[in-house]
Amino acid sequence: MGLAATIADSLLAVAFPRECRCCGNQVERKADGVACEACWSGYRFFTGRETACAKCGLFLGESESMFETFCRKCDDHAYGIARSAGPYRGPAAAEVISLKTNPFLSSRMQDAARVAFSDSFRDGADLLVPVPLSRKRFVERGYNQAALIAEFLGRSSGVAVDEASLQRVVDTPHHRAGMDRKARDLSVRNAFKVVRPKLIAGKSIILIDDVLTSGSTASYCAKALKKSGAARVDVFTLARAA
Ligand SMILES: [Zn+2]
Ligand SMILES: [Zn+2]
Protein backbone atom coordinates (compact mmCIF):
# COMPACT_ATOMS: atom_id res chain seq x y z
CA MET A 1 0.00 0.00 0.00
CA GLY A 2 1.38 3.40 -1.00
CA LEU A 3 1.71 6.26 1.44
CA ALA A 4 -1.07 8.17 -0.30
CA ALA A 5 -3.42 5.26 0.25
CA THR A 6 -2.31 5.15 3.88
CA ILE A 7 -3.47 8.73 4.36
CA ALA A 8 -6.84 7.99 2.76
CA ASP A 9 -7.32 4.82 4.79
CA SER A 10 -6.46 6.38 8.11
CA LEU A 11 -8.81 9.20 7.20
CA LEU A 12 -11.56 6.62 7.20
CA ALA A 13 -10.25 5.00 10.36
CA VAL A 14 -10.49 8.16 12.49
CA ALA A 15 -13.68 8.07 14.52
CA PHE A 16 -16.09 11.01 14.56
CA PRO A 17 -17.34 12.91 16.38
CA ARG A 18 -14.19 13.48 18.40
CA GLU A 19 -12.69 16.14 20.64
CA CYS A 20 -11.19 19.25 19.01
CA ARG A 21 -7.47 19.49 19.88
CA CYS A 22 -7.78 23.27 20.10
CA CYS A 23 -10.95 23.97 22.09
CA GLY A 24 -12.28 20.60 23.27
CA ASN A 25 -15.63 20.89 21.50
CA GLN A 26 -16.80 18.18 19.16
CA VAL A 27 -15.36 17.75 15.67
CA GLU A 28 -18.30 16.73 13.53
CA ARG A 29 -16.75 16.38 10.11
CA LYS A 30 -13.95 14.10 8.97
CA ALA A 31 -12.82 16.83 6.57
CA ASP A 32 -11.85 19.03 9.56
CA GLY A 33 -9.43 16.48 11.02
CA VAL A 34 -8.29 17.17 14.58
CA ALA A 35 -9.96 20.59 14.98
CA CYS A 36 -13.59 21.70 14.91
CA GLU A 37 -15.25 23.84 12.28
CA ALA A 38 -15.34 26.89 14.59
CA CYS A 39 -11.59 26.71 15.20
CA TRP A 40 -10.91 26.39 11.48
CA SER A 41 -13.20 29.38 10.84
CA GLY A 42 -11.01 31.46 13.15
CA TYR A 43 -7.87 30.38 11.30
CA ARG A 44 -6.58 31.96 8.10
CA PHE A 45 -4.38 30.17 5.63
CA PHE A 46 -1.98 32.42 3.74
CA THR A 47 -3.55 34.08 0.72
CA GLY A 48 -0.29 35.29 -0.81
CA ARG A 49 -1.41 38.90 -0.34
CA GLU A 50 -0.06 39.42 3.18
CA THR A 51 3.39 40.93 3.66
CA ALA A 52 5.94 38.17 4.03
CA CYS A 53 9.66 37.76 3.48
CA ALA A 54 10.08 37.24 -0.27
CA LYS A 55 12.67 34.57 0.42
CA CYS A 56 11.73 32.52 3.50
CA GLY A 57 8.02 33.40 3.64
CA LEU A 58 8.15 34.69 7.21
CA PHE A 59 4.90 36.51 7.96
CA LEU A 60 5.57 40.22 8.46
CA GLY A 61 2.16 41.85 8.40
CA GLU A 62 -1.48 41.50 7.43
CA SER A 63 -1.54 44.36 4.92
CA GLU A 64 -0.31 44.01 1.39
CA SER A 65 3.07 45.53 0.57
CA MET A 66 3.89 47.17 -2.73
CA PHE A 67 7.54 46.25 -2.40
CA GLU A 68 9.42 43.03 -2.05
CA THR A 69 10.27 42.66 1.63
CA PHE A 70 13.02 40.58 3.19
CA CYS A 71 13.38 39.57 6.85
CA ARG A 72 17.19 39.49 6.39
CA LYS A 73 17.50 36.60 8.88
CA CYS A 74 17.39 34.12 6.00
CA ASP A 75 19.98 35.85 3.80
CA ASP A 76 22.51 33.02 4.07
CA HIS A 77 19.99 30.18 3.74
CA ALA A 78 20.84 27.90 0.82
CA TYR A 79 17.32 27.48 -0.60
CA GLY A 80 15.70 29.82 -3.13
CA ILE A 81 12.28 30.50 -1.63
CA ALA A 82 10.28 28.89 1.17
CA ARG A 83 6.48 28.93 1.18
CA SER A 84 3.81 27.49 3.46
CA ALA A 85 0.07 26.93 3.43
CA GLY A 86 -0.52 28.87 6.64
CA PRO A 87 0.84 30.07 9.98
CA TYR A 88 1.79 27.50 12.62
CA ARG A 89 -0.95 28.05 15.13
CA GLY A 90 -4.44 26.86 16.10
CA PRO A 91 -5.83 23.99 14.03
CA ALA A 92 -2.86 23.91 11.61
CA ALA A 93 -0.42 23.49 14.51
CA ALA A 94 -2.69 20.82 16.03
CA GLU A 95 -2.70 18.99 12.72
CA VAL A 96 1.10 19.15 12.32
CA ILE A 97 1.56 17.81 15.88
CA SER A 98 -0.98 15.06 15.29
CA LEU A 99 0.71 14.07 12.02
CA LYS A 100 3.78 12.95 13.97
CA THR A 101 1.83 10.16 15.66
CA ASN A 102 -1.05 9.66 13.24
CA PRO A 103 -0.49 9.49 9.45
CA PHE A 104 -3.56 11.51 8.71
CA LEU A 105 -4.02 14.82 6.91
CA SER A 106 -7.48 16.41 6.91
CA SER A 107 -8.97 17.26 3.55
CA ARG A 108 -9.24 20.86 4.77
CA MET A 109 -5.45 20.94 5.18
CA GLN A 110 -4.89 19.02 1.96
CA ASP A 111 -7.00 21.48 -0.05
CA ALA A 112 -5.19 24.52 1.38
CA ALA A 113 -1.77 22.93 0.85
CA ARG A 114 -2.60 22.02 -2.73
CA VAL A 115 -3.67 25.59 -3.55
CA ALA A 116 -0.70 27.22 -1.77
CA PHE A 117 1.70 24.80 -3.44
CA SER A 118 0.46 25.44 -6.98
CA ASP A 119 0.25 29.22 -6.38
CA SER A 120 3.82 29.29 -5.04
CA PHE A 121 5.45 27.12 -7.69
CA ARG A 122 3.78 27.96 -10.97
CA ASP A 123 6.82 26.84 -12.94
CA GLY A 124 6.64 23.41 -11.35
CA ALA A 125 9.71 21.37 -10.45
CA ASP A 126 11.41 18.10 -11.31
CA LEU A 127 11.34 16.50 -7.89
CA LEU A 128 9.72 16.74 -4.49
CA VAL A 129 12.15 15.68 -1.76
CA PRO A 130 10.85 15.24 1.81
CA VAL A 131 13.12 16.34 4.67
CA PRO A 132 14.32 12.94 5.88
CA LEU A 133 14.13 11.47 9.36
CA SER A 134 17.07 9.61 10.85
CA ARG A 135 16.87 5.82 10.56
CA LYS A 136 16.28 5.63 14.31
CA ARG A 137 13.41 8.12 14.26
CA PHE A 138 11.90 6.48 11.19
CA VAL A 139 11.85 3.08 12.89
CA GLU A 140 10.31 4.57 16.06
CA ARG A 141 7.58 6.38 14.12
CA GLY A 142 7.01 3.91 11.31
CA TYR A 143 6.75 6.63 8.68
CA ASN A 144 8.13 10.04 7.75
CA GLN A 145 5.42 12.69 8.01
CA ALA A 146 7.24 14.88 5.46
CA ALA A 147 7.12 11.98 3.00
CA LEU A 148 3.35 11.68 3.50
CA ILE A 149 2.98 15.35 2.57
CA ALA A 150 5.32 14.96 -0.42
CA GLU A 151 3.35 11.91 -1.61
CA PHE A 152 0.05 13.73 -1.58
CA LEU A 153 1.46 16.89 -3.19
CA GLY A 154 3.18 14.75 -5.81
CA ARG A 155 -0.07 13.00 -6.58
CA SER A 156 -1.99 16.27 -6.98
CA SER A 157 0.72 18.17 -8.88
CA GLY A 158 2.15 15.36 -10.99
CA VAL A 159 5.70 16.11 -9.78
CA ALA A 160 7.78 13.01 -9.01
CA VAL A 161 8.71 12.29 -5.39
CA ASP A 162 12.19 11.12 -4.39
CA GLU A 163 12.25 9.78 -0.84
CA ALA A 164 15.56 7.98 -1.05
CA SER A 165 18.24 10.30 -2.39
CA LEU A 166 18.49 12.64 0.59
CA GLN A 167 19.22 10.94 3.88
CA ARG A 168 19.66 12.01 7.45
CA VAL A 169 22.81 10.44 8.78
CA VAL A 170 22.81 12.08 12.22
CA ASP A 171 19.91 11.94 14.63
CA THR A 172 19.25 15.38 16.10
CA PRO A 173 16.86 15.33 19.03
CA HIS A 174 14.66 18.40 19.18
CA HIS A 175 14.78 18.71 22.92
CA ARG A 176 17.78 17.06 24.39
CA ALA A 177 18.70 18.22 27.85
CA GLY A 178 21.78 20.39 27.83
CA MET A 179 21.66 20.95 24.10
CA ASP A 180 21.27 24.61 23.34
CA ARG A 181 20.35 26.11 20.01
CA LYS A 182 23.97 26.48 18.96
CA ALA A 183 24.82 22.86 19.73
CA ARG A 184 21.73 21.67 17.96
CA ASP A 185 22.54 23.79 14.94
CA LEU A 186 26.02 22.30 14.82
CA SER A 187 24.68 18.75 14.85
CA VAL A 188 22.13 19.52 12.11
CA ARG A 189 24.82 21.05 9.90
CA ASN A 190 26.32 17.71 8.90
CA ALA A 191 23.18 15.64 9.31
CA PHE A 192 22.20 15.38 5.64
CA LYS A 193 23.77 13.42 2.84
CA VAL A 194 22.79 12.76 -0.77
CA VAL A 195 23.20 9.06 -1.53
CA ARG A 196 22.17 9.14 -5.19
CA PRO A 197 23.71 12.37 -6.57
CA LYS A 198 23.03 11.35 -10.19
CA LEU A 199 19.29 11.65 -9.57
CA ILE A 200 19.73 15.11 -8.06
CA ALA A 201 22.19 16.74 -10.48
CA GLY A 202 20.63 19.43 -12.66
CA LYS A 203 17.20 19.04 -11.06
CA SER A 204 14.84 21.70 -9.82
CA ILE A 205 13.79 20.45 -6.39
CA ILE A 206 11.14 21.39 -3.87
CA LEU A 207 11.99 20.27 -0.37
CA ILE A 208 8.89 19.26 1.61
CA ASP A 209 8.38 19.36 5.39
CA ASP A 210 5.56 19.73 7.91
CA VAL A 211 6.69 22.99 9.51
CA LEU A 212 9.36 25.61 8.87
CA THR A 213 10.72 27.30 11.99
CA SER A 214 14.16 28.93 11.77
CA GLY A 215 14.69 27.47 8.31
CA SER A 216 18.15 26.16 9.20
CA THR A 217 17.24 22.49 8.71
CA ALA A 218 15.82 23.26 5.27
CA SER A 219 18.91 25.29 4.48
CA TYR A 220 21.27 22.43 5.37
CA CYS A 221 19.18 20.05 3.25
CA ALA A 222 19.35 22.53 0.36
CA LYS A 223 23.10 22.82 0.82
CA ALA A 224 23.52 19.04 0.57
CA LEU A 225 21.30 18.88 -2.54
CA LYS A 226 23.15 21.75 -4.22
CA LYS A 227 26.49 20.16 -3.43
CA SER A 228 25.21 17.23 -5.49
CA GLY A 229 24.42 19.54 -8.37
CA ALA A 230 20.76 20.46 -7.83
CA ALA A 231 19.99 23.42 -10.11
CA ARG A 232 17.50 24.94 -7.69
CA VAL A 233 16.08 24.06 -4.27
CA ASP A 234 12.92 25.65 -2.93
CA VAL A 235 10.94 24.71 0.17
CA PHE A 236 7.28 24.04 0.89
CA THR A 237 5.80 23.27 4.31
CA LEU A 238 2.27 22.95 5.63
CA ALA A 239 2.88 25.53 8.32
CA ARG A 240 5.20 28.44 9.08
CA ALA A 241 6.24 29.21 12.64
CA ALA A 242 6.85 32.88 13.49
ZN1 LIG B 1 -12.33 23.73 18.25
ZN1 LIG C 1 13.33 35.67 5.34
Description:
There is one protein chain. The protein has a single domain, classed as Rossmann fold (3-Layer(aba) Sandwich). The protein is built from nine helices and eleven strands. It has helices at 3-13, 37-41, 90-99, 107-120, 135-141, 145-157, 181-189, 197-200, 216-227; strands spanning 18-19, 26-27, 51-52, 59-61, 82-87, 127-130, 160-161, 166-168, 192-194, 204-212, 232-240. The strands form four sheets. Strands 5-11-10-6-7 form a five-stranded parallel β-sheet. It has a two-stranded antiparallel sheet with strand order 1-2. The longest helix has 14 residues, at 107-120. The N and C termini lie far apart (36 Å). Bound molecules: zinc ion (2 copies). One zinc ion (ZN) binds at residues 20, 22-23, 25, 35-36, 38-39. One zinc ion binds at residues 53, 55-56, 58, 70-71, 73-74.
